[in-house]
Every structure is written in structure tokens, then in C-alpha cells.
Design brief:
Organism: Tulasnella calospora MUT 4182
Oligomer: single chain
Pfam families: DUF2264, DUF2264_C
Number of strands: 20
Protein name: DUF2264 domain-containing protein
Number of domains: 2
């Protein structure tokens, strides 16, 4: 059965019944992969840093986020008995399907979280039917998480949920451990609803700060522990209200969310915060229930347009919009993507809840700022130019994550164009440094990109009136001890909404080559062939084309390097704007080119292409500035390409370099 015929991919996802059916349609395929006694679900053969039994437990436990919500809300799924049997077998030390007791920093700890949630939500389905011996085994197995060494991260929430689940079935649990974990987790809080994923010094604020873990966990806890811990629960609810004001800027009108950070194979867990708001009955001033409903359902609907997210028999693939091991982390097993089932939490609500009775509303694009700076994550969000994207500086993973520089250190992340990860270590096509500046000391064979920044900050032209002031991001990184690169990122201006600006200062003690690339784009023609180079003077259609080189007579500036790629994904390009900031600048050191990236680099397009400007830096140890304009207009979801009439006039405009940025460049 081809994946395109899966019921989930045909689901309109408009109603509570639609969401129930979406959940069960993704539960059904798991039966084929479930062990005889129900305790393990083995979905594939790829490895992780943890053992395969833990990976099979992951496949068993993560669907419970959705199944427990479905049953709590009065829904029915006869196949739930597979999990009930699995609880008995998986926690029995004498069973051949025993999961094993957890050690310190063990993956089993992670999967105790959905199990604790399930005991709290649906004990009559999963706990009460067990024999007394099986109940005792489950209690002992879950309780062994207490007193064990855990990472100082969102993982502490997994122990909170294990103890919370035990308390809800009146089983022995550690109230002391529960409070200690919550008290420590609260120290991660920064402000404006944001918590970092770790202690002081960690600058990692991604979906784990929101939908994947911290905000989601706080909201669920605030509902389940409201009587026992009312003051803390109200604090969590208020933090969620604040967080929503920023998190809405991660989404676009088509339901897509900006790919940023790690664990993106969790797919529509990216939007589960909106469902958790409803579950916790948290009203957000300025964001109606209809808008919240739309945020969640539109996002899940987006995934119904991505058949590559599923195998032919309806199991999640490891990847993003298609199977892609290049983008994964070493903790992604075939069962990992089922963290997505967190998004099904509104199924726990009755049909009379305002989340379900409200009419779905479109994305509130007219009522939110088109440019929105957020200090704690170090982002500037923009909804200009036909897509949502964020400019970013200052974040990095707190450990050496695979493709960590790409997941946190790039300059821009788009809901429509995604980002690319490396497939190798040679040449631009393998490094795939889209939306970032990369530097090479060997003429372009091996490249370095920004991973960690120094002194990253948001600056304002008028700090006393930030709400009405031009803002920009500014950060420094050092690829080698004798090389310093400072980058200033300027969001789009309403007069040129398809452009944003980057100004770079390079100080180097060695000869370098630089690449300053824009968004990568879908890399094929409509007939499936590779995009063809087209001379700019003969480019008269709005169809698939690759253009690069010096400006020709139809370009606004005759002495500026540029590159452009138009395809079914939309139009992306870059142009050298240094002459607008430094009138005596010679463009001879920069040239435009379009690089065909290695297959399976861009996480959204398996075949992709990248416009960039290549520069030369002679190692003078003096500050050298150059400025790049980055152009992008995506096609609408479900459409192939953008007609030339929709973008060519904007491409012919030069975005103005703001006076405040000119002062920085010229040292004023």
C-alpha cells in the first residue's frame, strides 16, 4: 500500500472526530510490529547510543501520549489492550519481554514520562485490569527512577511525571524527589515565559523549551496537580500565557513551524504547546480559542501533505519531510518520532470545551507584529515576504551534537525553505552552508561555519522606544584564533519585504575564502530534471531557472555579484550590497554562484540548490566589511513555483542599508 493512500494523509483534520481518527490511524500500523506479549514495538534496525530494548520500549511508550488522551476523553480504541498486556510483560523481571530496570542517565527514564502520564490519565484502562503482581511490578519498575543520576536538563520532567503517575494511582512515590526536581527545573526560567534547557550557561531555547518538553510539561502538570500544588501551577499557567506571545511567531499561515534546533523528527509535536494550553484551560489574552485551535490543526494538516514522513505501511520515518538520517541525532530510534503524539492531547477534552466549540480561525497575521524581536532566544521573527522566518544569533547546543552548528548557529530559519545539514566534509555541496557565512583556508575544500558566538545580542536604533525602533542582531565568532567574524542581521523593511540584510566584518591573519549563502531551495525542474543555468539577459519566464554571475544590463547595479534560483519551491537569491555601504568598495573580490547541494542535505527538499556569494580575504589583519542582501519568496503550499510577475520587480530593488548599520560599518 503506497503511503499516499494512508487514511491520515486524507484526513481533513477539522473536527474532534477527525483528530480522533488521525490518532487511531497512526496507532493501527503499530500492531504489525508489536511483540507477542505487547511490551516492545520494534519499528526498524537503525541504532542509537542506547540499547535496542530501550529503543523498543520507546516504540511502545511514546504512542501513549495520544492513546491515553484519546481514552481519557471518552474515545475508544480496542487495540489499547496491546499496551495493557505490555505493561504486565515489560515490568516483569521474569518475562522475556522485560524492559530492564533503569540505570542513571538511561533512556528508560525518558519513556517513564508517557507511562506516568498514562497512569494519571487512564488508570482504568491500563492499571486496574492488571493482576496484583503486575501492578506491583509496574509500581516497582516506575519507582526505580528515584535516586538515580539524571542529566541536568528537561529530563528532570520525566521523573516528575513518573512520580505524578504513581501518586495518581495511590502507589508509593517520592514526594521529596518530586518537589526537589520541580524546584530545580524552576531555576531554568529566564523570563517572558522562556526557560533554557539546562542550568545557567546553557543557551539553548528551542522546541524543548516549549512544545517538546518544558512548557508542555508545565501545562500538563498545572492541570493534573492543581489541587496539590496550586501556587506553582498558577505560575506555570502565567508563564504559558507569556510564552504564547512569542511562540506564535514560529508559525505561518499554512500551518508550518520554523525548523530550528534538534529533534525535528518529532514532527507535529512542534505544535503540541497549543493543545496543552487547551488541556490546561489556559486562556491567553489576545489569542482566541479559535486561533489556538487553528494553530494546532493547521500544523497537523500540514503533515497530511508530507507522505515522505511515513513508510508505505503508515509508520513514521526518521527524518523530517522525508527519510533523512543526515539530520538525526544519536538518540533517534525508529520509535522516536512518536513523541509527535503529544499533539493529540486535546482529545482528552470533552466536546463541550471551548477549544472544540470555537470556530477555527486563520493565522492572526493582521494582529501580530510583522517583525518581533525576542531577547531570550536571541531571535528576530518576521512574517514579511510570504513566509515566517527567524533571524538567530547566540544559541548553541550544550554538547557536541551532530550538525549542531546547522541546527542552532545559522543566520536564518524559514518555515518554507527549512535548512540544510552536511553530508560530508569536502566542498560546498557537502558542507551545504545555506543561510550562513562559511570560511575556508584551503580555497574552498574544507569549510568552517558558526557554532558558538561571543557577545550575541539584539540592538535597537532607539533603545528608549524598542517597540517602534529598528532592531538587529549582532554577534562575533572565531573560526580560528587569528580570525574574527562579526555579523549584523537586519530584518526585512516593509518597503522591500522580500529582502533581509547581513553585514559581516572579517578580520583575518590568513588568506580566506568566504561563502555567504541564502536560503536553499528545491533543486529540480517541474519535469524532475536538474535546474538549468540561464543567462540573465534571456531570462523572461518565471519558471525553473538558475542564474548567477555579475549583474547584466537588466539588473539594478552593474557592479554587484549576485545569484538566483527559481523553482517549484519559490525564488531565492543573494546580492552583494557592499557598494551601498562603502562607496569605494571594489566588487572584484566577490562573485555569485549557485551550488547544487548534495542529495538529502535540506531537511525539506531531498534535492536542493543554494545561491551564494564567494569572497576572497587576503589576510591583512584589518577589519574588512561586506554586505549581502538575501532575497526569498516561497511558493504557496501546494503550488508549483511563483510567477515572475509576483517577484521580479522586488528582485530589481536594492534594499536600503539602514543609517544605523552604516554607522556600525563606518565606525561612527
Amino acid at each position: 500500500m503506497p503511503s499516499e493512500t494512508l487514511d491520515f494523509l486524507k484526513n481533513p483534520l477539522r473536527t474532534r472526530e477527525d483528530l480522533q481518527r488521525a490518532c487511531t490511524s497512526l496507532l493501527d500500523p503499530l500492531e504489525l510490529y508489536t511483540s507477542p506479549k505487547g511490551a516492545r514495538i520494534k519499528l526498524g534496525y537503525t541504532a542509537t547510543h542506547y540499547d535496542d530494548i530501550a529503543a523498543q520500549l520507546e516504540g511502545f511508550a511514546r504512542p501513549l501520549w495520544g492513546l491515553a488522551s484519546l481514552l481519557h476523553g471518552g474515545g475508544d480504541y480496542p487495540g489499547h489492550e496491546r499496551w495493557t498486556r505490555g505493561f504486565a510483560a515489560g515490568t516483569d523481571p521474569d518475562s522475556d519481554e522485560f524492559w530492564g530496570f533503569t540505570r542513571g542517565k538511561d533512556q528508560r527514564m525518558v519513556e517513564m514520562s508517557p507511562i506516568g502520564f498514562t497512569l494519571a490519565m487512564a488508570p482504568e484502562k491500563f492499571f486496574q485490569p492488571l493482576s496484583q503482581q503486575a501492578k506491583d511490578n509496574l509500581i516497582n519498575w516506575l519507582g526505580c527512577i528515584n535516586g538515580k543520576d539524571m542529566p541536568d536538563t528537561n529530563w528532570l520532567w520525566f521523573r516528575v511525571f513518573a512520580n505524578l503517575g504513581l501518586s495518581k494511582i495511590n502507589a508509593p512515590y517520592s514526594a521529596t524527589q518530586l518537589k526537589a526536581d520541580l524546584d530545580h527545573l524552576d531555576t531554568f526560567y529566564l523570563g517572558d515565559g522562556w526557560s533554557r534547557d539546562g542550568p545557567a550557561g546553557v543557551r539553548q531555547l528551542d522546541y524543548y523549551s516549549g512544545s517538546f518538553a518544558i512548557q508542555y510539561a508545565q501545562l500538563v502538570y498545572s492541570k493534573l496537580a492543581a489541587k496539590e500544588d496550586p501556587e506553582r501551577c498558577e505560575e506555570y499557567r502565567e508563564k504559558a500565557r507569556l510564552f504564547a506571545k512569542t511562540f506564535i511567531h514560529w508559525f505561518d499561515e499554512d500551518g508550518r513551524s520554523a525548523p530550528f534546533g534538534r529533534s525535528l523528527t518529532y514532527r507535529f509535536a512542534m505544535a503540541s504547546f497549543w493543545g496543552a494550553l487547551a488541556f490546561a484551560d489556559v486562556e491567553v489574552p489576545g489569542i482566541s480559542w479559535g486561533a489556538i485551535k487553528g494553530m494546532l490543526l493547521r500544523h497537523i494538516r500540514y503533515w497530511t501533505t508530507q507522505p515522505g514522513a511515513f513508510t508505505r505501511d503508515g509508520v513514521f520515518t526518521i527524518g523530517y519531510t522525508y527519510p533523512n538520517m543526515n539530520m538525526t541525532e544519536n538518540y533517534n530510534s525508529p520509535g522516536s518520532p512518536y513523541w509527535a503524539f503529544k499533539a493529540f492531547i486535546p482529545l482528552a477534552l470533552p466536546e463541550t470545551h471551548p477549544f472544540w466549540t470555537a470556530e477555527e480561525e486563520p493565522f492572526p497575521i493582521a494582529s501580530i507584529p510583522k517583525v518581533f524581536p525576542s531577547e531570550h532566544p536571541g531571535h528576530i521573527y518576521t512574517h514579511l515576504g510570504g513566509h515566517t522566518f527567524l533571524l538567530s544569533s547566540g544559541q548553541s547546543c550544550h554538547y557536541p551534537l551532530r550538525a549542531g552548528a546547522e541546527k542552532y548557529g545559522k543566520l536564518a530559519y524559514s518555515t518554507a525553505f527549512g535548512y540544510a545539514v552536511p553530508t560530508g566534509t569536502l566542498l560546498l555541496d557537502q558542507h551545504a552552508p545555506d543561510n550562513t557565512i562559511a570560511v575556508s583556508e584551503d580555497g574552498g575544500v574544507v569549510w568552517k561555519v558558526r557554532r558558538e558566538c561571543d557577545d550575541a545580542r539584539i540592538e535597537y536604533e532607539n533603545p528608549s522606544d524598542k517597540a517602534n525602533s529598528l532592531c538587529w542582531l549582532r554577534a562575533v565568532w572565531r573560526p580560528w584564533k587569528d580570525v574574527e567574524v562579526e555579523t549584523v542581521l537586519v530584518p526585512p523593511h516593509p518597503d522591500t519585504p522580500l529582502w533581509h540584510i547581513r553585514a559581516h566584518r572579517v578580520k583575518t591573519g590568513r588568506e580566506l575564502t568566504s561563502s555567504d549563502a541564502g536560503f536553499s531551495n528545491y533543486g529540480q525542474r517541474k519535469d524532475g530534471r536538474a535546474l538549468d543555468p540561464v543567462d540573465a539577459s534571456s531570462f523572461t519566464s518565471g519558471d525553473d531557472a538558475v542564474l548567477d554571475g555579475k549583474s547584466s544590463s537588466d539588473q539594478p547595479t552593474e557592479d554587484a555579484a549576485w545569484a538566483l534560483a527559481s523553482s517549484a519551491g519559490g525564488v531565492v537569491g543573494v546580492r552583494d550590497l557592499t557598494h551601498l555601504a562603502l562607496p569605494n568598495f571594489s566588487a572584484s573580490g566577490r562573485k555569485g554562484e549557485v551550488t547544487i547541494l548534495d542529495a538529502n542535505t535540506n531537511i525539506m527538499f531531498s534535492r536542493s540548490i543554494m545561491p551564494t556569494i564567494i569572497g576572497s580575504h587576503l589576510g591583512s589583519s584589518r577589519d574588512e566589511w561586506f554586505v549581502t542582501g538575501v532575497f526569498a519568496l516561497p511558493s504557496k503550499l501546494g503550488q508549483d513555483g511563483v510567477p515572475k510577475s509576483a517577484w521580479v520587480a522586488e528582485w530589481h530593488k536594492n534594499p536600503a542599508v539602514p543609517d544605523a548599520i552604516l554607522k556600525i560599518i563606518n565606525g561612527a
